[in-house]
Design goal:
seven-stranded mixed beta sheet, 295 residues, two-stranded parallel ribbon, alpha/beta, single chain
């Protein structure tokens, strides 16, 4: 049994052009070649593969054989891959990052993050993204150790040297609990929150070791996952502070209640874009920073 030969990329490009243009002559005009050169490239491609790719007839528009349809699909994938490779190399020659690693504070509303990354993908389709979602000091630590080029951090980064920062719109943090929780009723006395279990988001990094943020309860559960905290709050395990955008639907549906605590009504969680001062971001990261700043 004869093995098929190895077609050239140019032959596959001619195949795609003929099918998309609708004729050999149109493909020739598209590629800047004579019709005879297009026909010659197709003949050589069929000879290399040992298969007829087009039916031979009198129709003006070339018709693919079943084998031709299969080969065309692979040819298109290869052409797209080569085009993508050339675009990436062009970007590298112009100083564009091959990959952008971003560390994002879990408090950043998902809709803001999704909108920014969707627009980024459309603007820079060749730049790969590596996304880390962390809490508190873990975002700063990822930027510090070079794992992430760009961070969207909470308040901690202002205390870290060698870090450039640009303020972003913060997130409202509010105290919530399930409707049946003792703190969910009216007329809560001052200090009552201290007597009930508080669910607290904890830091996976050592940067905030020994420090508490907005902790009132004498008893607390420390959770490293905001999603787990959210679920436990809805289950009535305790009370805790949550980003308002994340619990907005729960408040409307009555799955959670905003608490009227005399000593704590909530706070604004500040956010900022950060990067190492000695390692300025590249063009793609700067574009994303401008987009985030404008949200």
């Amino acid at each position: 049994m004869n093995e098929p030969g190895t077609p050239s990329f140019d032959q596959l490009r001619v195949l795609v052009a003929v099918v998309e243009a609708g004729s050999l002559a149109a493909a020739g005009r598209q590629l800047g070649r004579a019709t005879s050169a297009i026909s010659y490239a197709l003949d050589n491609l069929e000879a290399q593969l040992g298969l007829p790719l087009f039916t031979r007839g009198t129709a003006r528009r070339p018709a693919l054989t079943e084998a031709g349809k299969i080969v065309l699909a692979d040819a298109r994938r290869l052409a797209q891959g080569v085009d993508g490779l050339r675009a990436r190399v062009k970007g590298l020659l112009e100083g564009l990052e091959a990959e952008l690693a971003i560390a994002v504070d879990v408090m950043l509303p998902t809709d803001r993050l999704v909108a920014a990354l969707t627009a980024f993908q459309a603007e820079y389709p060749t730049v790969a993204v590596r996304l880390h979602v962390e809490a508190l000091g873990a975002v700063t630590q990822l930027v510090q150790d070079g794992t992430a080029t760009l961070g969207i951090s909470g308040p901690l980064d202002s205390e870290i040297g060698g870090m450039s920062r640009q303020a972003l719109r913060g997130v409202e943090m509010i105290p919530v609990a399930a409707p049946g929780h003792p703190l969910a009723g009216p007329g809560i006395a001052s200090g009552a929150a201290r007597e009930h279990l508080q669910l607290v988001l904890t830091d996976r990094s050592p940067l905030t070791a020994g420090r508490d943020f907005s902790v009132l309860g004498l008893r607390s559960w420390r959770l490293a996952d905001l999603g787990a905290k959210h679920a436990l709050l809805k289950a009535g395990a305790g009370w805790g502070n949550m980003p308002e955008p994340m619990v907005r639907d729960d408040l409307r549906a009555g799955r959670l209640v905003r608490l009227a605590l005399p000593e704590w009504q909530g706070t604004l969680y500040p956010l900022a874009m950060i990067h190492l001062t000695h390692s300025p971001p590249g063009p793609a990261a700067r574009w994303l920073m401008g987009l985030l700043a404008g949200q």
